[in-house]
Amino acid sequence: MNNYCFGVDLGGTAIKFGIFSEDGECQEKWDIKTRKEDKGRYILQDIANEINKKKQQWKLYDTQVLGIGIGVPGPVSGDGCVFSCVNLGWGKTNVVEGLSKLTGECKIAVGNDANVAALGEMYQGGGVGHQSIIMITLGTGVGGGVVIDGKILAGSVGAAGELGHLHVNDDEEAVCTCGGKGCLEQYASATGIVRVAKSLMQKSKQETMLSKFDKLTAKDIFDCMKKGDDLANQAVDIMCEYLGKALGVAATVVDPEAFVIGGGVSKAGEVLTEKIQKSYEKRVLPVLKKKEFVLAKLGNDAGIYGAANMILSKK
Amino acid sequence: MNNYCFGVDLGGTAIKFGIFSEDGECQEKWDIKTRKEDKGRYILQDIANEINKKKQQWKLYDTQVLGIGIGVPGPVSGDGCVFSCVNLGWGKTNVVEGLSKLTGECKIAVGNDANVAALGEMYQGGGVGHQSIIMITLGTGVGGGVVIDGKILAGSVGAAGELGHLHVNDDEEAVCTCGGKGCLEQYASATGIVRVAKSLMQKSKQETMLSKFDKLTAKDIFDCMKKGDDLANQAVDIMCEYLGKALGVAATVVDPEAFVIGGGVSKAGEVLTEKIQKSYEKRVLPVLKKKEFVLAKLGNDAGIYGAANMILSKK
Asked: Quick check: B158 contacting A, CB < 8 Å?
């Protein structure tokens, strides 16, 4: 009889599910809407219902279910304590106990969603073949995850790998969403690079294709850069300088085998990894220069893959 | 019958030894000169001789020796592979195999000396009570060590925790010993702060007690600061700003419970930890602000204590 596990990616809008075979193959995936009413009190029951239904559909005995891995949008300690999930209305929550009761005393593993996604990319995405990586996710914000010796580095208050708020610029005057000034996210998120480009446009009298756009996006900037627009190129350079600097200091602390670059902005492709790597190599010890820089591969599925791998890699 | 272990701190000038009881108490310590002749080929034999002699003196059976921990001055992988020790003339060296043969098939654990010292400070020095710390050592150079969940974070090429070469200043023009520019060591080592003070003296016309010294040292600068010298105070502020910045980015990556500040320069005392903490708190996420900043306690013995703890904490 074959064994399976579930990977769950709990987000503020949707909950994604995957059922995985023991060798990590995703057999089926689906999602439901996240019910945030009443401080998110129905969420664990909704997750358990979906899993119990799927167990029935697949006619699985409890003993065939190796466990349920779940990524949540908030800080999680190394032993699975969820400190809070502001987006869900959750305060301190014992997901392991709560979900275990509702799913037949199944083994549960919990991690922060960005860390879990990093684990997924390492085992089955861009970081395959490695045991320690730093992943950085360039989306609306900038997220990060650190995996060391095959395991998520959670941190003492669940805040390890918060690379979006790595301080990279002492001269910044604009305030970041976190209240600080000069965070990586202010330059390297989708909104960050637009801010950088607009600031360049204001300061320079240079002609640029970017001025044609009513509502400039990160994608527009990368597209114009590829068409040879100098100002767009400058904006991307600034973004990648800061990214290389941030990954350089991160490597000086944990010395990973590779870096995985993900998130919507990473669709810009290898032009991004090349520029980041160039900036990185300027700022690290010789022994740290030779690192692999790769693009993420799993997209929005990284979360369910990583969640499954929290169960499968611990066997 | 009581059990014991040995802690060895292999340096470029001397090899320090300690024999420890099972509960981590140092029973006796001693040292010998490091024989670096012929590419350091006699070193492991010298270490084994000392340990075997001590076993005889103490009339210990092989079964009473829990193991030998050893810190070496070079990069070491997580599984104990020593990549090189330039100061000793060593290339890639299998210390575990070599030393095990010479000491009666004893359990051997090897780590980088700065990382091993961090482990010692965590288990029995300034970091007691914690399970994850970042230690920074302010001496002739600046070293560092990261301990996560009670274990040394070695890094994929043994270069984790190289905090002296964390890039903190893009505007630096002077070159660091590593070939880079703007490394923490250029401001926060004993020579670094002297360089900072001299540069301030050149630029300003301000009167300062520092101009009285023929050969200015880090200690002179801290002494004059304590006597109210404004320029000395500025130099210490610059040093601590960079230290806080570096520890801030390190915390954003690994989120430790505490920071331990050691090395000769740390004798300046709590004025140092206070200034570092102030700079640190300006640059990190709210969730990371509340960290403990403590002074190291074991001084030059941190290495043998940490080496012993590599054996004792793994039991």
From this structure: yes
Residue of chain A minimizing CA distance to B133: A156
Model ipTM value: 0.93
Q: How does pLDDT run across A258-291, given as a tens digit for each residue?
A: 999 999 999 999 999 999 999 999 999 999 999 9
- Nearest-by-Cβ selection for B252 from A132, A166, A288: A166
- What tens digit of pLDDT does each residue of A93-144 get? 999 999 999 998 889 999 999 999 999 999 999 999 999 999 999 998 999 9
List strand residue ranges (DSSP E) for B200-302, in order: 258-262, 292-295
Half-sphere exposure of B252 (CA within 13 A, CB side): 34
3-state per-residue secondary structure call for chain A: CCCEEEEEEECCCEEEEEEEECCCCEEEEEEEECCCHHHHCCHHHHHHHHHHHHHHHCCCCHHHEEEEEEEECCCECCCCCECCEHHHCECCECHHHHHHHHCCCCCEEEEEHHHHHHHHHHHHCCCCCCCCEEEEEECCCEEEEEEECCEECCCCCCCCCCHHHCECCCCCCCCCCCCCCCECHHHHCHHHHHHHHHHHHHHCCCCCHHHHCCCCCHHHHHHHHHCCCHHHHHHHHHHHHHHHHHHHHHHHHHCCCEEEEECHHHHHCHHHHHHHHHHHHHCCCHHHCCCEEEECCCHHHHHHHHHHHHHHCCC
**Which candidate from B132, B160, B246 shows the least CB-CB separation from A254?**
B160
